[in-house]
Amino acid sequence: MSEPAAERWDDARLAALLPWPAPDANKYARGALAVVGGCARYPGAACLAAAAGQRAGAGYVTVVCAPESLAVVRGFRPSLVARSWEGWQAADLPAARPARPAAAVVGPGLDPADDACARLALAVLAAAASPLLVDGGALAALATGEGRALAAARAAQGRVTVLTPHGGEAARLARGARIGGDAAADPARLAAALARAYGAVCVLKGPDTHVSDGARTVLVDRGTAALAKAGTGDVLAGVVGALLAQGASLLEAAVLGATLHAEAGCAAADRMTAIGVVPEDVVDALPEAVRRLAAAG
Ligand SMILES: NC(=O)C1=CN([C@@H]2O[C@H](COP(=O)(O)OP(=O)(O)OC[C@H]3O[C@@H](n4cnc5c(N)ncnc54)[C@H](O)[C@@H]3O)[C@@H](O)[C@H]2O)[C@@H](O)CC1
Ligand SMILES: Nc1ncnc2c1ncn2[C@@H]1O[C@H](COP(=O)(O)OP(=O)(O)O)[C@@H](O)[C@H]1O
């Protein structure tokens, strides 16, 4: 099947999507974001996603993590609300309601090789009624037979999902769905095929990022190799999750989020050099990325 050429969205269109708060906004109206991740081995990934979610505008960010990770999350940023996943039910995730939008991110810092992490990811896929972004270790669970059945059930129920694989995770998702395609050879085609196979919007990350809903594909190619450092994908998950939590549509949240992430990488490199940027710098550069996009639009 031949795919339509990838679109590019101009700055004016992207700037119009920025989620400026209304004068009478409160923290709930600005969107609740729950980040489910951060096992004992990877607490930092959940910290990065959650901090990025705050910088991208979400009004109330919660981290649901391993009990061993609680102290790390709280120490990293006291404004995050952290709770243990022991005794927690995925049904406790905030549901989007009128004037109280919400979204969830599952996967940053879930170990793809750990059974308990896989069960948690599958429980979130089954229960999350609000928009759900699936990243990191949760993508391994999604690629299983049970994960694919849950993705199909979510789509049938009208529940919306965004996937943010890197090349290795995309290959695993493609194998699970028995679709061909190679991220290196034809990323636009693979992003579209994964979107269709999983009933989701797919953000296929790489030096260029391709965002597809299966029918339309948008190219985001304004990033920098400064972003090639462990943990920047967790930052992207938090940014897109926050835009979903503020009520953006799936494709718009994914394209605007990938753009702000790329622009924040460039702004961080301007300050820290492309050698020295760390993911925390990308989080801190998100306001500059917003300013640059608003000025360009
Ligand atoms: N500070 C932290 O706590 C960090 C935790 N992280 C977490 O670590 C867990 C495992 O994620 P990883 O991505 O490290 O898993 P892996 O590094 O195990 O990647 C899975 C597979 O994909 C391949 N791969 C990785 N990046 C690729 C790319 N860009 N293109 C093609 N193939 C690629 C790898 O070779 C491997 O075979 C996730 O939950 C993630 O959120 C990472 O994001 C790094 C930072
Ligand atoms: N050379 C590059 N140029 C532009 N962006 C890049 C480059 N390398 C990586 N990135 C971006 O950095 C992020 C890396 O995400 P990922 O591989 O998931 O890292 P991690 O899992 O360690 O957080 C993605 O958003 C990707 O698009």
Automatic annotation (TrEMBL):
Description of how the protein assembles with itself and partners: Homotetramer.
UniProt key word NAD: yes
PROSITE patterns: YJEF_C_2, YJEF_C_3
Domain called YjeF C-terminal: residue spans: 10-293
Keywords assigned: ATP-binding, Lyase, NAD, NADP, Nucleotide-binding
Reactions this protein catalyses: (6S)-NADPHX + ADP = AMP + phosphate + NADPH + H(+); (6S)-NADHX + ADP = AMP + phosphate + NADH + H(+)
Cofactor(s) named in the record: Mg(2+)
Superkingdom of the source species: Bacteria
Family statement: Belongs to the NnrD/CARKD family.
NCBIfam families (UniProt xref): yjeF_cterm
Residues involved in (6S)-NADPHX binding: A45, G109, H166, D234
Residues that hold AMP according to the record: K205, G206, P207, D208, T209, G233
Protein name: ADP-dependent (S)-NAD(P)H-hydrate dehydratase
Pfam family name, one: Carb_kinase
UniProt keyword Ligase present: no
Free-text function comment from the UniProt entry: Catalyzes the dehydration of the S-form of NAD(P)HX at the expense of ADP, which is converted to AMP. Together with NAD(P)HX epimerase, which catalyzes the epimerization of the S- and R-forms, the enzyme allows the repair of both epimers of NAD(P)HX, a damaged form of NAD(P)H that is a result of enzymatic or heat-dependent hydration.
HAMAP family linked: NADHX_dehydratase (MF_01965)
EC number: 4.2.1.136
